[in-house]
């Protein structure tokens, strides 16, 4: 029996939280929910509200595609993470990032 994509949500969130080096208590505090509620999302297949899902996705840097289109996952998650970080940059920060990447490539 194939799992529904949303049935994987708890596992995706737990993995992303651990990858980011956060305890359940730390993440719950950051996104303003109880650790018990986060535990029920991660381990008991509880579906969060849109607001909580939005905060989790943003805080953990999870691509929406990871949740809704897992069959389309790319193997290069470091590149995807970098792209998500770039979206959070303002114009000045983008210029700095671009110059840094160009300098790295020029020194190959």
What does the model show?
This protein has 108 residues and is mainly α. It has 2 domains: 1-73, Orthogonal Bundle (434 Repressor (Amino-terminal Domain)); 74-108, no CATH class. The protein is built from 7 helices and no strands. The protein has helices at residues 9-19, 24-31, 35-43, 50-60, 64-68, 77-87, 91-106. Helix 1 crosses helix 3 (35-43) and helix 2 packs across helix 3 (35-43). The mean pLDDT is 86.
- Which blocks of ≥5 consecutive residues have pLDDT under 50? none
CATH superfamily of the largest domain: lambda repressor-like DNA-binding domains
- Count of structural domains: 2
Query: In angstroms, what is the radius of gyration?
Result: 16 Å
List SSEs in N-to-C order.
HHHHHHH
Summary?
This protein is an all-alpha fold and 108 residues long. The protein is 66% helix and 0% strand. It has seven helices and no strands.
Topology overview:
Layout (H helix, E strand, L loop, with lengths): L8 H11 L4 H8 L3 H9 L6 H11 L3 H5 L8 H11 L3 H16 L2
